[in-house]
Structures
1.
Amino acid sequence: MKNKIIAFDFLRALAIAMIIPAHLSNFLSFTYIKLALYAVDPFVANMGLGLFIFMSGYLLYYNNHSINSFQSVLSFYRKRLLRIFPLYWAAIAAFTLVFFIFAPRINSGFEFPNAEQVFSFHNLLMHVLGLQIFLAPAYVSPMLTLYFVGLIIVFYTIYPLIIMLSKSSKQILLYSSLIFLGCLLVSRTFNIIEYRFYTFFPIFIFGILTCKESLFEKSMIINRKNPFVQILLAALPVMLVLVIVLGSRTTLLLEQNTSFTIESTSSGTIGSSTVVSMLESIANSLGLSYLILKFIIDSVLLNLFVIVFCVLEYRFAMKFINNEFSSSLSSVFTYVATASYCIYLFHRPFLALWNSGTHFISSPILHDVILIFIALPILVVISYHLQILELNLKKHIFHKKAPHKDFPLIGSSNSSGK
């Protein structure tokens, strides 16, 4: 059990270590570093988010594999909401203060996209209720970073239904597929349920099945001498290139004559006429729109890549983290893992405030070195103590032990298991 806790601390630390650098392009000063990060940031961030969601499905089933009554469903929701919302609401307040109310006075170098719409009263209310993924795009504009909480809330809402209906892995696949198709129908009819639900829902279900069936526990499954594994490992770079080429950063690879600046790249709308023309031709031949075909290709490739990545990282953690593993290194993993939820929620406003306070540094390289090697460690330390404070406050208020951890962004893995 101890080894598994450390293994999941490692995976959570790895996930947050992938997400934060992927968002740094908005806060760095040296142009070439910004462009290099911007070229790959959506894909690295999606891999990190995919790893979080995989672990969320895995740990949800590990800790809540028996939900068989209305009372147990209510208990499940109560614990999830108590665990997610307090810090999430604090993050909404921080985003509103930093990126909207005081934004004109803060010289952070980062302009929040669609700020007037995102920080409107109606939109903030939908975020406070955690409905940003369910009601987007018709009624809500999901907020950068904080959209993920709405995504995980949708998964948590669905989870008890799947578990109550399913007695086997086949039934989990069946009912999750029916839910997926039902959501697609609702989405087409009412223009709700944001696309990221469809992108990450298969990964969430894969995490549940990995725990239920104890998949990938045996080393032989990830044996590099296995021909299937060799083909899979060889295909990973190909899949990553395809994901990038078909994504919004394709100008960096295919449009050599296109000029762009750091301002144009920050809009997130770099597109390749080569890829667009090719996909439009294929879409027309299939009787589909370009956007639908691109969404299908992007989702399939991203899911394949993220699932393979999660399997390899999960297997690596389970195989190599054992009783002889360095206690000091495992402590680092636990520290970062404990802080990971706060790091995720607050890193954008923190970095914006840091940039505002250090804009006097004229050297872009010096600015970026200080940001990476001083600001980020400070963020980790503050996030850790904020998370511990929040857990202790809940423990004091409810006069009981802080609940065990089955949400991959929250809490310390030193909590009890079931």
Note: The chain has 15 helices and no strands.
2.
Amino acid sequence: MTAWTDSAQPAIDPIYRMQWEEAQQCHVLLFPEGMIRLNQPAAEILKRCDGKTSVAALVADLESTFGEPDLRADVLEFLEQARGRHWIR
């Protein structure tokens, strides 16, 4: 598997639907066999995985929104894990 490039545009796999689940008080990924509860950082990254936003723009947006510098390594690590779990493509 290749590493994510700045120009890559990750998207949530169509088998999943991300939504806020009031009963769980968190964002979840719904799929035919069940549901995956997401922590806040995972949800914030996946919200931006729309197939149009580049990895570079995604990282810049997160850094700006949360006032945290140097999030690139953490975001790339999450993207790799999410791809490995087939949540994104």
Note: Helices lie at 40-47, 55-66, 72-84.
3.
Amino acid sequence: MKDLNPPIQIDQRIFDLYDEYCHGSMARREFFAKASTLTAGGLLMAQSLIPEYVQAQTISFTDPRIKAQYVNYPSEGGSSGQMRGYLVQPTKAGPAPAVLVVHENRGLNPHIEDVARRLAAEGFLALAPDGLAPVGGYPGNDDEGKDMQAKLNPTKLWTDMKNSALYLKSHPLSSGKLGITGFCWGGGVTNSLSCALGTGVQAAAPFYGDAPAAEQVANIKAPLLLHFAENDPRINAMWPPYETALKANKVSYQPYTYAGTQHGFHNNSTPRYVELAAKLSWERTLAFFRTQLI
């Protein structure tokens, strides 16, 4: 795998601008232009942050431990009434505990598919839904994917994720126990699905996701494992009131903040990736799911 640790020291202002680019309407050209004015070498720093998915694959499509396929299923109340997802099962016989993997704000890109394969290789039945499926699916690049997702009705998109969770939980290959994980936008969906599905979820592990509304937290019945980046002011500002609500409602939870990390540190396709933090957070997530789902 290509070494994706930054060959140059990336200015924090470039990381901050990249976060704005990822979560707002800024186009790539504008991101590069603004980065070039911030500091010497800013353009090179910005260019290095663009994901390189092929080099970041960790589990091969042909890994003998897994079997992967794209599946279609109904989604009443969603963007189109139909959904498509990437279903990855362990090759060993028998039903398996299920984990929904929710993508970032750009559709089902290759990194999220790789995460689903990682889970299946560890014995879980994983489904990574593509929220862009009703409008043609992930387009092959994140810029178009981000624009496409931004144009979707957010309530219908969220409903597609909820229906994906219910489809996975009731799948013939599922043991009936459901875990959820997600990253960025998907981390927020992980939190909100934990509220909406109540006892239908047995474990949830959001990575740097938006907190749900405080009044919804009482509906959470599953234990939570929450991962945060140290340098992520937008997400981290939501944590104190969220934690207060979790305590008030006696929800079991364990938060971790990883020193020296940026939002997106688990994604090994860009230099935001921090290997030690990513591996530790993933080991904790696997151990958590094994404890709660198996």
Note: The first helix runs from residue 12 to 23.
